[in-house]
Design goal:
seven-stranded parallel β-sheet; alpha/beta; globular; Rossmann fold
Length: about 250
């Protein structure tokens, strides 16, 4: 009974940022649990590496989800292998780490375009198919910086604060039609995006000490929360940010 509750078998999922980091982990977990997964990222070769690692029924789509002018063509390629997705995971992201006095218009625009605008407009495109089925799961990636201010995090923090509100706003708009919209808020996990943090052992240790569990995240810590938010187990959960941070934001 519990296994069926958390099942994603037979569902069609699209994961942005699937070539690396937590997006790759999410795409792999869904594929290994029976979903048909379209991995989307800009690096075609890295996506093929992911497919070889994940196994299962997968497809790779190389493209820039932040290029709004090409959204229709990109969405058509996402739909081509398995049909319109039941599950949409927005894991693609960028962090320019520019200090407040050094933020450039280009850095600001690139951060907001990929981290905040792209998740909304891709969701908007696929929402009608989910509404027609009466079932859908949209999972955004929030951050510790959705709620905390970090050095060099003006643009990134603004985008991730926006993600928390986007989850609530999309839930208000689309959940009456059976689409749940939630966000996962990871703590410090070792990924390409957080490489500068983990390159400093003292900083990584301080971050670990800030959590209730006394350690930083491991890739497998994402698996359970992700399956929860993508399955029937979370049918009555929408508009929420689930912090997967070892208790960092609890202290």
């Amino acid at each position: 009974m519990a296994e069926a509750l958390f099942s994603v078998a037979g569902r069609v999922a699209c994961v942005t940022g699937a070539s690396s980091g937590l997006g790759r982990r999410a795409a792999t977990v869904l594929a290994r649990n029976g979903a048909k997964v379209v991995g989307l990222a800009r690096r075609a070769e890295a996506l093929e590496d992911w497919r070889a690692e994940a196994g299962g029924e997968t497809a790779a789509v190389a493209g820039d989800v932040a290029d709004r002018s090409a959204l229709g063509e990109l969405a058509a390629r996402i739909e081509a292998p398995f049909g319109a997705p039941d599950i949409l995971i927005h894991a693609a992201g960028i962090n320019t780490r520019q200090a407040a006095d050094a933020v450039t218009p280009e850095g600001w625009d690139a951060t907001l375009a990929l981290n905040l605008s792209a998740p909304f407009f891709l969701s908007q495109h696929f929402a009608p198919a989910m509404q027609a089925r009466g079932w859908g799961r949209i999972v955004l990636f929030a951050s510790l910086q959705s709620f905390r201010a970090f050095p060099g995090g003006i643009a990134y923090g603004a985008s991730k604060g926006g993600i928390a509100q986007l989850a609530r706003a999309m839930a208000q708009a689309w959940s009456p039609q059976g689409i749940t919209c939630n966000a996962i808020g990871p703590g410090f996990f070792p990924t390409e995006l957080t490489a500068p943090v983990f390159a400093d052992p003292d900083l990584a240790a301080r971050n670990a000490a800030q959590t209730c569990l006394g350690r930083n995240g491991r890739p497998e810590d994402l698996d359970g929360p992700l399956l929860f938010l993508c399955s029937e187990a979370s049918a009555y959960v929408t508009g929420q940010v689930l912090m997967v941070d070892g208790g960092f934001t609890a202290k």
